[in-house]
User: What shape does this take?
Amino acid sequence: MAARDPIYNDPALVQFYDAANSARDDYDMCLALAAEGPQPARTVLDLGCGTGTLAAEMSARCTVTGVDPAAAMLNVARKRPNGGAIRWVQADARDVRLGERFDLVVLTGHVFQVFLTPQDRSAVLRTIAAHLAPGGRFIFDTRKPDFPAPKERSAQASQRMLNHPDLGQVLTWNTSQFDPTTSVLNYQNHFQVISTGQVHSAGAQIAYPSKDQVATQIQAAGLTVDRWLGDWHGGTFTTTAREIIPIGRRVSD
Assistant: This one.
């Protein structure tokens, strides 16, 4: 799980997270969703908030609570601009219960995929349902398992250079191995600081549930989907989509 994986909880690895994940198309969609309708979202729950970049963006318009199990990620989140305006909670999305409800619950950055079993994913969906206010909505993303692109990557094919604000140039690459019997991808991320030659490496796992599996679990959690998107630009879900992005609410609403 994410709380134990060094890639999320070791400060030596977490220091590269923002530089490696600077392109995030989900931000604009989540901000637009929060502003939609006759009553824009006033309160937002960011489950699996990581280093808090989306939470910080949304805090300019909404009251935001960010939840993540990894202390090292939250340490970065607290120090970013607007970090002091957000309530940060170290907890697991499977069982956290805050005793309050929110107008919008988001789970982005493919966090849904770090939950490797159907039982874990069902628990996360129940958490979403437990925290939605009447009329509130949820949105999350998971990569489509049969998208026609290779999941397994080699070091040579994946190399790229990052510009780290403190460390300068960093060469990064990743390798991955996919198990079709479990639909789980094992991957390893590597970062080499050019100025020192030091290499930091860590591995983790993510799952690839199908849309039908996700839809069944959403329904079982007492949720319903209003729209299925296939990308973060608002494209409708199709058989050729790269992403599975449900937008929905509680059935009781």
